[in-house]
Design goal:
The protein is an alpha+beta fold. The protein has 18 helices and nine strands. Strand 1 and strand 2 form a beta hairpin. Keywords: ATP-binding, Calcium, Kinase, Lipoprotein, Membrane, Metal-binding, Myristate, Nucleotide-binding, Phosphoprotein, Repeat, Serine/threonine-protein kinase, Transferase.
């Protein structure tokens, strides 16, 4: 005890040299009582709990940050995030002038080249409206197609493509000669012959043949997509719109439905089409040019498609008895329902009626043809105007709401609503829940119309907003169609 006590005492009165060591030496701790142990454990648990809460809060904050970043990324249209690789000096080289027309994604203007004063056409496409990657690919493909075909006498010439932060600009040859049917209807003394029609059809076939040579299908051959270069009598006809055109590999087929209602080929409706569909469309145009009426007609588009699939064109009604045998033979060989038995574009160019120096008659066609054609043009433009007017009433918020509804129905997220998806949506426990029998009735009623409207067919079925607009437009179209059957338009 004395030694121990002495040691402690000596240690406590040691010199300054040992002060640091003594300072670092821990004092012996007293054993904790049970109460103290419990308090310590509780304190540790509280600290651990606070740590977990902080960790959870941090994780939640991180998740929110990532979601916000993702939403922010989604909110920016794909077009705005894309560098197309085009020239960036459009404003330095061109001055935009008057508006020529507009479509879903952009506007076409007259523009002037600041360097030489030449007038050109400029298609200005809004990057903000390229919401999905498919829209970006559509623009790139259209530019590539124009590059491939430029130099052909019957294709609008491509000059260059530009871009800035807001737009893509496609600079092309300016065509000021007007639309095909307008040019025909403006003929002096109503002198319109088979030969006039043959000259036009030959130029269209040349475009189709050139497309097919490049592994390309136009997919939307119709009079509105052709313009004359100038107002001169001998002005060439130019194909100006390749928005639906696409490349296809040998032996492959397109399975989507695109085109315009009056001109769509049977195999397109069967989702098994290729280059032959362009020839069918030219056959429909030729039929209209020779008699002023459409070869397949019904008061509804559903009926039109049934006509295309099942029936043959009428070659007995006036004015066909006065049309040459050669002209009728040509049209019949283009409007063959089996694409394998149909003439190719190259073969059609060799037909006696359409080839240069061929046997197309130069005797004026019956005056009723121009009268029929005039009614056809008026009706087509009335329908286009009505559709555009209706589409213009839908604002961005409504369009966003429609997209949400579309996404909810489009279960497989392939960008199109199938009949099965529509059936499931109508039968679900939703505000529009219906009995199975009524669901079947509705699905059957819209089975063709979901893919038949000219407005929808022009969308490639890949653009949700046009499909949704079609659902609203269907009733207006039905009214226009039924109205046509009760007025002078029934001459068609």
């Amino acid at each position: 005890m004395g030694a121990c006590f002495s040691t402690i005492k000596v240690s406590g009165s040691n010199s300054n040299n040992n002060t640091k060591a003594n300072h670092n030496r821990k004092e012996p701790t007293k054993p904790q009582t049970r109460t103290e142990k419990a308090a310590t454990r509780k304190k540790q648990e509280v600290v651990h709990h606070h740590h977990q809460i902080n960790k959870s809060v941090n994780n939640e904050a991180e998740k929110k940050r990532k979601v916000k970043e993702k939403q922010s990324s989604k909110a920016i249209p794909c077009g705005k995030r894309t560098d197309f690789g085009y020239d960036k000096d459009f404003d330095i080289r061109y001055t935009i002038g008057k508006l020529l027309g507009h479509g879903q994604f952009g506007y076409t203007y007259v523009a002037t080249d600041k360097g030489n004063g030449d007038r050109v056409a400029v298609k200005r496409i809004d990057k903000n409206k390229m919401v999905l990657p498919i829209a970006v690919e559509d623009v790139k493909r259209e530019v590539r197609i124009l590059q491939e075909l430029t130099g052909h006498e019957n294709v609008v010439q491509f000059h260059n493509a530009f871009e800035d932060d807001s737009y893509v600009y496609i600079v092309m040859e300016l065509c000021e000669g007007g639309e095909l049917l307008d040019r025909i209807l403006a003929k002096k003394d109503s002198r319109y012959t088979e030969k006039d029609a043959a000259v036009v059809v030959r130029q269209m076939l040349k475009v189709a043949a050139e497309c097919h040579l490049h592994g390309l299908v136009h997919r939307d051959m119709k009079p509105e997509n052709f313009l004359f270069k100038s107002t001169k009598e001998d002005s060439p006809l130019k194909a100006t719109d390749f928005g639906l055109s696409d490349f296809i590999k040998p032996g492959r087929k397109f399975q989507d439905i695109v085109g315009s209602a009056y001109y769509v080929a049977p195999e397109v409706l069967k989702r098994n089409s290729g280059p032959e569909s362009d020839v069918w469309s030219i056959g429909v145009i030729t039929y209209i040019l020779l008699c002023g009426r459409r070869p397949f007609w019904d008061k509804t588009e559903d009926g039109i498609f049934k006509e295309v699939l099942r029936n043959k064109p009428d070659f007995l009604r006036k004015p066909w008895p006065t049309i040459s045998t050669s002209a009728k033979d040509f049209v019949q060989k283009l409007l063959v329902k089996d694409p394998r038995a149909r003439l190719t574009a190259a073969q059609a160019l060799s037909h006696p009626w359409v080839r240069e120096g061929g046997d197309a008659s130069e005797i004026p066609i019956d005056i009723s043809v121009l009268s029929n054609m005039r009614q056809f043009v008026k009706y087509s433009r009335l329908k286009q105007f009505a559709l555009r007017a209706l589409a213009s009433t839908i604002d961005e918020e409504e369009l966003a709401d429609l997209k949400d509804q579309f996404d909810a129905i489009d279960v497989d997220k392939n960008g199109a609503i199938s009949l099965e998806e529509m059936r499931q949506a109508l039968a679900k426990d939703l505000p529009w829940k219906l009995k199975e029998s009524l669901v079947l009735e509705i699905v059957q009623a819209v089975s063709m119309n979901l893919v038949s409207s000219e407005y929808l067919l022009n969308s490639k079925q890949k653009r949700w907003n046009e499909m949704l607009l079609h659902l609203g437009n269907h009733w207006l179209l039905a009214w226009l169609e039924s109205h046509a059957t009760r007025t002078s338009y029934n001459v068609l």
